[in-house]
């Protein structure tokens, strides 16, 4: 008779076969009853709803929402495909938000299907799915698919959403409309459906965006077909955005608008920059004096169990992974070593900034080297693959406990290029420090280490204004993470800016 451990191992083998396909969501009937119950009992699976399961790590707290947010869209696509076949799509409103790269996990996702039952399905962590019954699903050329999600195309969706969408989601509406450079696909739908009122709304919207050629093309074609088009601006009563949206990638427009919306908030709450110090040597000595505290707090925020003694051991060179198995396998020591190596690179950049060199140019050039130094010890020890050092991530990533889903890996390069353009054009060191710190986390360009990189980034930008090297205290971690979440989900940066300003004004921490 097999032992309990052997039975569990057999069940885990079944789970592994499914996970090797990149899956995290499963139908219950993909497991035998014995395997299913054993994996649930040992917290390797968790029930989403009856008949559906998700991968779970036994070491993960039951209250941790990260695995669910990580699996949310996979569940939606698999559940809908299983229940509706190809007879479904996300709502036009949700489709436009995803087209505009708004990736916050929604409280409720609305599914359109002629097989729907107008029923709300409650899901984990206060999320839900509502299957709205519609007469017929959109035509195939009105649907696009991304990572298993069936969505309305941009042109089909802008005809379907109500005028209120332009007021409640002005950023997303502007971003998707700015991506339309020719009116032909819109006009086909407008003319076939005789949508003169919608045409008037879109003419006003495009004209408001400064795209008069598209606006005039829609107006003239509708009038030629004898439709009465009354131009109205759907953005007129809503919040006005501070910049004109260009015809760039959606993620680029999103970041540019976010930056402009946030900068005055930061300027209002942040202390005035003191300017570059007269003595860069004195400044750098102060940075060196703070190193142990900085490493302790930054690593502890990420969950590493480090002590000043361990950090000092690594710093002094007494850490010897070549000859000590204990040092080689000690993740905390490896992380501390990577932090020390990165600090050396950051220190060199800060010193150059204090000499008057361009902070944005220097950091853009060195950022990936900082990341490589951070993980080089783990690669050498064989604990992570060498491909870790390649640079920007090549797959999706999720932030523990956050409803914000970082941009798709395919658009990370566009996002980072835009970020550094914004940094180059920003005159205030406070804005570069605060908004830049947040957006590194928002974009999450690397598979790991983004928080540590963001804090190094922040200090390099603070130095460009003569602000002191600033440590984020681990005992303020919850406040710090909540402020970042508020910025990423609601684009409200005030609490984060105030938090960083308080840390800058109180730079000396006690252990």
Describe this entry's structure for a reader:
By secondary structure, this protein is α+β, with helices and mostly antiparallel strands. Helices cover 55% and strands 8% of the residues. It contains 22 helices and 9 strands. It starts with a helix and ends in a 6-residue tail after the last helix. The relative contact order is 0.08.
Helical coverage, percent range: 40-55%
In CATH, the homologous superfamily of the largest domain goes by the name Fido-like domain
Shape: flat
Tally of DSSP helical segments: 22
Strand proportion: 5-15%
Average pLDDT works out at 90
Write the layout of secondary structure elements.
Layout: H1 4-19, E1 25-27, H2 33-41, E2 45-49, E3 52-55, H3 66-84, E4 89-90, H4 92-99, E5 108-113, E6 119-123, E7 127-133, E8 143-146, E9 149-152, H5 154-160, H6 164-168, H7 170-178, H8 184-193, H9 196-208, H10 212-224, H11 250-269, H12 280-289, H13 291-301, H14 308-316, H15 325-329, H16 331-354, H17 359-380, H18 412-425, H19 429-443, H20 450-463, H21 477-490, H22 494-505
Parallel strand pairs: 5-7
Antiparallel strand pairs: 1-3, 2-3, 4-5, 6-7, 8-9
Helix pairs in contact: 1-2, 4-5, 7-11, 9-10, 11-18, 11-19, 11-22, 12-16, 14-16, 16-17, 16-20, 17-20, 18-19, 19-20, 21-22
